Predict the structure.
Amino acid sequence: MTSTADHTALRAQLDTLTTEAFRPELAEIDQRSTLEIARTMNGEDATVPTAVAEQLPRIAAAIDGIAARMSRGGRLIYAGAGTAGRLGILDASECPPTFNTDPEEVIGLIAGGPPAMITAVEGAEDSKDLAAAELDALGLTAEDTVVGISASGRTPYAIGAVEHARAQGALTVGLSCNAGSALAAAADHGIEVVVGPELLTGSTRLKAGTAQKLVLNMLSTITMIRLGKTYGNLMVDVRASNDKLRARSRRIVALATGASDTEIEEALAATDGEVKHAILVLLGSVDGPTAARLLADSRGHLRAALQAAAQES
């Protein structure tokens, strides 16, 4: 059980964090009109991209490291508690339909497990050992990357994940919203997006959450671009799992090739509906099996496969 002394020490620690700072000028915000509050909140949110921009060199360096490991079969693993953990799971869950990744390639861990997605799990975020055990259960390797996410930068679960992963030789990234954070210090790549005090004191689901979402978007999306999951700005590895995505698949093939609807349907039929393969069939003038071979040889990079097709013709 946590003692009064422990609570006092933690309170003193929180008092030093920018994300926990009290803003006297907003002390009567509940007395403002709804439109005034909305304008204030919108103005606060507008500052977030600038804070992210200041960290772009660090973000880019982390992405290059992640992509290098994933190209060798490594995984991208997010670990966080509360909002941070939920954002990690959100980003991980969107990679399979967007980039046709295996669900085990990008993984989100949240303190307290799946129930914590909708209900707070008391004490889970305070355990470094829990994070280490969950990484061990995944069979962590040195080719993996672990991204610890914590607005405060002090959450034991996130820090524990990064410390344990680094000890195992994995690449580590610490994403926080406070300068000089323990999380950033523990990681190979420390990313500290300092967005300042929140509209509601300590409610880091607001600006801090937005900043984390923006950075996670970059980590996963640009990594996938580096891995050849796109062709230009087209999602050529999209998984057509519903009517909307099937229509989008055909539109992507059309944008990439300029082919007719009939040609597109024939190419998709010849490649079992694989968008990237269909584009190669049309632009490279090859059949389905040849497209599959060329893409396998080029490790999924469509531009390289197109060059190889041209050399073979």
In short: The beta strands are 76-80, 106-110, 145-149, 171-176, 189-192. The mean pLDDT is 93. The longest helix spans residues 207-226. Residues 153 and 176 are 5 Å apart (CA to CA).
